[in-house]
Amino acid sequence: MTTHKAVFFNLEAWAEEYLQKNQALAAAGVEVGFVNGIIDKNHLAADTDFDILGTFVDSAADATVVNALPNLKHIATLSTGYDHIDLQACAARGITVSYVPTYGENTVAEYAFGLILALSRKICEARDRIKEEGNFRLDGLRGFDLMGRTLGVLGTGHIGQHVIRMANGFGMKVIAFDAFPNPALATELGFEYKPLNDVLAESDIVTIHVPYLPSTHHLINAQNIGLMKQGAYLINTARGAVVETDALVAALQSGHLGGAGLDVLEEEGMIKDELFALVTGHAGEHDLKTVLEDHVLVDMPNVIITPHNAFNTKEAFTRILNTTIGNIVGFANGTPVNLVKTN
After folding, report:
1. Of 162, 170, 179, 343, which is least packed with CB atoms within 10 Å of its CB?
2. Superfamily name and number for 4-103+314-332
3. What pLDDT score was predicted for residue 268?
4. Which conformational region is residue 281 in: left (phi greater than 0), alpha (psi within -120 to 50 degrees), or beta?
5. Which one of 3.40.50.720, 3.40.50.300, 3.30.70.20, 3.40.50.1240 gives the CATH number of domain 105-305?
6. Which residues form the catalytic set?
7. What is the pLDDT of residues 108-119, one digit of tens each?
8. Other CB atoms closer than 10 Å to residue 229's CB: what's the count?
9. pLDDT tens-digit map of 189-220
């Protein structure tokens, strides 16, 4: 049996223990190892003696990382998105890439509705008023019902479908945009597909559930954000760069938008690691204007920002680990599954 070594970066202790105890990996001849930290071009692996890289979206397997791992044959990303991996660099080396196609459809959808409810009922303001001021007054805390409101869903894949089912439970009207409409789904769930501009113009709340691709970069932008209703709300639990930060800040500052719930930002990695960037001189590789605008968003009272946390439940992460185990076992046995097309 051919043996393999898989090294995972920046996992929690319980996840490391879960993988170490997995019998399927051992039966496939896969030894597992762990590094406490991310891997990217500024944090290269000290020990490169492994052929399988396990990574999450907080790492970046760009060409520098790929070419610094001479034995690398497979990357298993513990995520649905794979824009943090240089697929061209992998193709040039014959490295295969696997991903987790589904794991948290309900998980992310529930989180999106958490943001919607927090904004619509001013839950964060109410909590802060009591904790910080001991103030139980209701002035300034009047919200609005979801029943009867129009929810615009951008992307009707696995997550979007769960969002629509939840919206139906709240008695909302749902309209949706998708590059590949599914008429049977629309009939089943009782919503209507419309062009993007119409969805923006007619929705009280717009929630984003599209993947990040060249075609979805700045899907919401300066040219179309003004089409949204006066006082409408924007929810983004997908990828930060689907929304043009300049346009969002301007729409919020002008009062055109009523608020936003954002679990992702365009330069969220830079914000999390900006001190490192400043002291090492790598800050110029990021759009610092966007970083500063992200900070403006953080300080807006009608904006809720969370740290890319929508996927983060024990159940969802266990599903991620189980799928990743299957992906690695498939690679080791010569029967790969859930491969990303790299060329």
Report:
1. 343
2. NAD(P)-binding Rossmann-like Domain (3.40.50.720)
3. 64
4. left
5. 3.40.50.720
6. 239, 268, 308
7. 999 999 999 999
8. 18
9. 999 999 999 999 999 999 999 988 899 999 99
